[in-house]
From TrEMBL:
Pfam families: WGR. This is WGR domain-containing protein. InterPro entries: WGR_dom_sf (IPR036930), WGR_domain (IPR008893), YehF/YfeS-like_WGR (IPR049809). It comes from Marivita cryptomonadis. SMART domains: WGR. Gene3D superfamilies: WGR domain.
Length: 71
């Protein structure tokens, strides 16, 4: 899932990427990457016991980012 936020008047050109991936031991990862568009971003991986928990976390982050202007 890719989100972007741009505002030329404030020189804001940001991206936020989220992906859910299975782990080797039955756990699930929410992989997040964020940064300036056109540049390599920072990466964070959060582990969850179930796929449903990872999807809930992704949805919560999506709502938080949409309130901050990401589309």
């Amino acid at each position: 899932m890719d989100l972007t936020r741009t505002d030329a008047s404030q020189n804001v050109h940001r991206f936020y990427r989220m992906e859910i991936a299975p782990g080797l031991f039955g756990d699930w990862a929410l992989v997040r990457e964020w940064g300036r568009i056109g540049q390599p971003g920072q990466v964070r991986i959060d582990w969850y016991d179930t796929e449903a928990a990872a999807k809930t976390a992704r949805f919560d982050l999506l709502m938080k980012k949409s309130r901050r202007g990401y589309e």
